[in-house]
């Protein structure tokens, strides 16, 4: 038997577990997660109104219910929890699939003013992440600025524009639904520092912004035209060309008479968040122009955009895990085809997959080949560690260490509690938003 621990139960962790059990009949996998709930960013990152992507949970469920896979939730790895060195004693091999747990910073004055949040903090709140804080994101907000033009920026822009009727069928927590439903936001500015052809969103997600009820879209053709590829997109790769075509289709139309407006802005780089009455009041941008090498340069002209809410959506970043090497520049763990590199040399028995391996890029499906590459390395290395005697069942050892994981039945009990909560509110499933209620539900015995 080859015992492998996979740390993290998001898509990369689940695809890793799946590859392991598919490729080698000897393997038994424990999938550990800090949270009592599985699925990582599929549960706590994919927007609640993206039901189709969310339904991927059914596939991931199949992996975690495999007879040689065990879900061990509520287990912190690292400081305050199970040390990395202890995992190495309990398992033949460990695969870290811990994602990119923090946000990139802008590094500009005013970034930490009340009312300025990372997009992740906002996403965590409406996704019921138990660590999320509810700071009245939308109180008194008429104008919101979203900084960045990636898919996360599109997600939060869309959520700000949606009304209660559209959000009510989702599994969003009730407090967030109530707040978004009562929102008085009239304008959402989504702002890129470069041009339309360099935006990171995908066309499907961009197009969706044009389908939101009672919401208009404004693109200034003169601003977009600073990008030569906007005027002539023929030479662009297909994904960027399609983005530009969608934007050109919207550009120049008169501002529609709608309850909300989304203004897509380009060539503006944020230089400062300015305060009004003790919280953010505006974002000061410097206008940029293309530098001819794919980047931009400042022009020395500035523009202020009013905002009572600023969501900084400029990408994620991996964080170091005590006991593992870390490349601070890339925010990843150094590796060779998924094998962790310690001091430049391969450390057999330690592996990475997903965003902590390759950085926070790609769609969910990108994790599948990424996990397979790592598992192939692991199984090739297996003769180096498979004969090592282990102290017994790792679950018993964890319990002896004082760790009491939430198992699959605990997670199923959470699912039942969420279904009951939804029924009591006249909705479908509604997520439990805090540690207390999640753990209380997990400790019951199910339906
Ligand atoms: P992202 O795709 O890397 O986009 C980050 C955006 O922030 C870019 O527009 C970037 O502009 C901008 N930015 C970075 N630093 C900045 C700065 N200092 N000032 C102003 N702008 C700055 O990151 P993301 O949106 O967080 O998405 C992460 C990954 O998750 C992506 O692969 C994404 O596709 C995926 N995702 C997918 C979905 C979906 O499929 N529905 C949903 C959510 C996320 P530059 O290009 O100029 O650097």
Structure summary:
Belongs to the ferredoxin--NADP reductase type 1 family. With 447 residues, the protein is an alpha/beta fold.
CATH class of the largest domain: Alpha Beta
Within the largest sheet, what's the order of strands?
3-2-1-4-18-17-16
Mean of the pLDDT scores?
Answer: 96
What's the architecture of the largest domain in CATH terms?
3-Layer(bba) Sandwich
Give the total of domains. 2
Strand content: 15-25%
Q: Helix proportion of residues, in percent?
A: 25-40%
- Main sheet record: 7 strands, mixed
Compute the number of helices. 18
Q: Alpha-carbon distance between the termini? A: 34 Å
| Computed Rg | 23 Å
- Ranges where pLDDT stays below 50 over 5 or more residues in a row are none
Distinct ligands, ions and cofactors found in the model = NADP nicotinamide-adenine-dinucleotide phosphate
CATH superfamily of the largest domain: FAD/NAD(P)-binding domain
How many individual β-strands? Answer: 18
User: What is the fold-level CATH name, i.e. the topology of the largest domain?
Assistant: FAD/NAD(P)-binding domain
Binding site for NADP(+): 193-194, 205, 362
Pfam families: Pyr_redox_2
Enzyme class: oxidoreductase
Keywords: FAD, Flavoprotein, NADP, Oxidoreductase
């Amino acid at each position: 038997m080859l015992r492998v621990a996979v740390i993290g139960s998001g898509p990369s962790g689940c695809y890793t577990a799946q590859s392991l059990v598919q490729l080698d009949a000897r393997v038994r996998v424990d999938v550990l997660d800090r949270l009592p709930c599985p699925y990582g960013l599929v549960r706590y990152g994919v927007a609640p109104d993206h039901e189709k992507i969310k339904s991927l949970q059914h596939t991931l469920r199949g992996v975690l219910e495999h007879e040689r896979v065990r879900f061990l939730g509520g287990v912190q790895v690292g400081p305050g929890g199970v040390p990395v060195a202890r995992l190495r004693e309990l398992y033949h091999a460990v695969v870290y699939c811990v994602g990119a747990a923090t946000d990139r910073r802008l590094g500009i004055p005013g970034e930490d003013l009340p009312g300025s949040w990372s997009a992740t903090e906002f996403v965590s709140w409406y996704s019921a992440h138990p660590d999320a804080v509810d700071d009245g994101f939308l109180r008194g907000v008429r104008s919101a600025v979203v900084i960045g033009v990636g898919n996360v920026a599109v997600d939060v822009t869309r959520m700000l524009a949606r009304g209660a009727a559209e959000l009510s069928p989702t599994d969003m927590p009730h407090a967030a639904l109530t707040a978004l439903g009562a929102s008085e936001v009239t304008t959402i500015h989504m702002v890129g520092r470069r041009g339309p052809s360099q935006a990171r969103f995908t066309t499907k997600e961009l197009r969706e912004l044009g389908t939101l009820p009672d919401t208009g879209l404004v693109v200034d053709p003169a601003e977009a035209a600073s990008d030569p590829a906007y005027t002539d997109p023929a030479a662009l790769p297909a994904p960027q060309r399609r983005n530009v075509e969608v934007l050109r289709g919207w550009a120049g139309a008169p501002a529609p008479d709608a309850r909300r407006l989304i203004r897509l802005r380009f060539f503006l780089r944020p230089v400062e968040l300015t305060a009004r009455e003790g919280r953010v009041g505006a974002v000061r941008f410097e206008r940029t122009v293309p530098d001819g090498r794919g980047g931009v340069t400042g022009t020395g002209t500035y523009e202020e955009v009013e905002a009572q809410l600023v969501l900084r959506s400029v990408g994620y970043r991996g964080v170091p895990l005590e006991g593992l090497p870390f490349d601070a520049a890339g925010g990843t763990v150094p590796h060779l085809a998924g094998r962790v590199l310690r001091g430049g040399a391969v450390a057999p028995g330690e592996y990475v997959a997903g965003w902590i391996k390759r950085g926070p890029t790609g769609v969910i499906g990108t994790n599948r080949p990424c996990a397979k590459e790592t598992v192939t390395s692991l199984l090739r290395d297996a003769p180096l560690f498979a004969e090592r005697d282990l102290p017994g069942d790792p679950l018993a050892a964890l319990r002896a260490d004082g760790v009491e994981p939430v198992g699959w039945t605990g997670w199923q009990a959470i699912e039942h509690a969420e279904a009951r909560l939804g029924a009591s509110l006249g909705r479908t499933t509604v997520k439990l938003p805090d540690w207390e209620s999640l753990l209380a539900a997990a400790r019951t015995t199910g339906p």
